[in-house]
Design brief:
Layout lengths: L24 H16 L9 H14 L6 H8 L3 H10 L3 H15 L12 H25 L6 H26 L11 H36 L3 H27 L18 H21 L2 H6 L4 H12 L1 H18 L10 H18 L1 H11 L1 H4 L18 E8 L5 E5 L5
Antiparallel strand pairs: 1-2
Helix pairs in contact: 1-2, 2-5, 3-4, 6-7, 6-14, 6-15, 7-8, 7-14, 8-9, 8-10, 8-14, 9-10, 10-13, 13-14
Length: 422
């Protein structure tokens, strides 16, 4: 039997749909889920929008008067007969399947919204790449010119910077493969699967980028002083950061029976991906806060003029900006990982991740940049205090955070240097 999948049947408007009708959130969830299932089960039409593929199923169901069969679906749309049987089963059988396709294609489709993706990823990537590259260049020049050489934690920051650029480049491709549309029924399965695959890669890669940036800061604090509370705090935070990164990678690799889970829509994943991503993001925010407050007691212990103490606190407190970006990213994961016509896009999550990673690098470079400014404009900036990153000691040694040796309020001597060898 030849079945026409191109021409729509002559149907009038459904009298049961009132004027001003809007699709309910519950129906929207079902339509978006249907678009995913139909798209993944129709390889013969993977380059057509899933909304158009649903219409083809509706034409087929109408032509056969609801007598839909798995062999027909396999022949016309391309899945195996086993996959076609699964597709009919999740809709409650052939009759219910046909009714659902007809209802979506002819009753509900005219009322569906068609939101577009925000054009933010590419501009953010370009802007932050330029800014962060400039800041990192100043940081390295400061270490070379003022501190006497580039330190290991600087090289680790360079690794974090390179990984951040790579992550942003993948996010730009993610923006491209997602097309301009947000809703699943406005995309082809080729674009949907490509977007899921790219976002999966970004999710796995994110943990390792964040780990490199955090470890550079932790190594900086470790070499900054020999105070036990800081060093033990660095050990504990490093353990949490590394453990979270390894755990996150294992979760993403083992969450579903197949790594490429989007190619097996009939399989149930072992882990709720959204909840797992939120837990991992929350753990990284916790370590962000720890790294932010870690040097604060050291600043209060040193004998400094009030203005110097204030500027030192400001310098080290810039990390709070990255913490705020991390919190916004967590909120975007919660909002934009849901199935709805307005929030089925993960590009906003990409955008906030680009902001978070770059701000972490920029804020961690602030002490070195300030030291460079003081070095080249001492008459203007030296009066602002010398506790930022480096100053020249009486012996001519370089590389201290503030002064080579700071006195606490109790009179104890605290070594505060970027290089324990000195």
């Amino acid at each position: 039997m030849d079945i026409n999948l191109t021409d729509d049947p002559q149907l009038g408007p459904n009298p049961q749909i009132p004027e001003g009708f809007q699709v309910s959130p519950h129906d929207m969830l079902r339509i978006l889920s249907t678009a995913m299932w139909i798209g993944g089960s129709s390889p013969n039409f993977k380059y057509e929008t899933t909304g158009e593929v649903i219409k083809k199923y509706a034409r087929y169901a109408w032509a056969v008067r609801g007598k839909v069969t798995a062999p027909d679906i396999s022949r016309l749309f391309g899945p195996s007969e086993g996959e076609a049987e699964w597709l009919l089963e999740i809709f409650g059988g052939p009759k219910s399947f046909g009714e659902m396709m007809v209802a979506i294609a002819y009753d509900l489709y005219p009322y569906l919204p068609h939101p577009t993706n925000p054009n933010v990823v590419v501009p953010l990537f370009i802007s932050f790449t330029i800014i962060t590259t400039f800041i990192m260049a100043l940081r390295l020049w400061s270490r070379y010119k003022v501190a006497g050489g580039i330190q290991p934690f600087d090289w680790l920051a360079v690794v974090g910077f390179a990984l951040t650029i790579a992550w942003g480049g993948i996010a730009v491709y993610h923006d491209h493969i997602n097309t301009q549309w947000q809703a699943f029924y406005d995309k082809s399965w080729y674009n949907l699967a490509g977007g899921l695959e790219t976002y999966y890669a970004l999710t796995v890669f994110y943990s390792w980028v964040m780990m490199a940036i955090k470890l550079s800061l932790l190594l900086f604090y470790y070499r900054m002083t020999n105070w036990n509370y800081i060093r033990w705090s660095v050990y504990a935070t490093t353990f949490v950061v590394v453990g979270t990164t390894i755990s996150a990678t294992m979760v993403w690799l083992l969450q579903c029976p197949h790594v490429r889970y989007w190619e097996y829509p009939w399989e149930m994943c072992r882990i709720n991906r959204k909840k797992a991503e939120m837990v991992i993001a929350s753990l990284y925010i916790f370590t962000d806060i720890v790294i932010w407050i870690l040097p604060m007691p050291l600043v209060f212990q040193l004998k400094l003029y009030p203005r110097e103490r204030l500027l030192a606190l400001i310098t080290f407190s810039l990390g709070a900006i990255a913490c705020v970006a991390s919190c916004y990213r967590l909120a975007m994961i919660d909002q934009f990982s849901n199935y709805s016509s307005q929030s089925s896009s993960t590009l906003i999550i990409d955008a906030w991740t680009i902001i978070e990673l770059n701000l972490a690098l920029i804020c961690s470079s602030a002490p070195a940049v300030r030291a460079l400014a003081i070095h080249y404009a001492p008459k203007i900036l030296n009066s602002l205090g010398t506790v930022a990153f480096t100053s020249q000691s009486a012996t001519g040694k370089k590389g201290s955070i503030g002064s080579t040796t700071g006195s606490s309020k109790t009179g104890a001597q605290a070594r505060v240097t970027s290089d324990p060898e000195k």
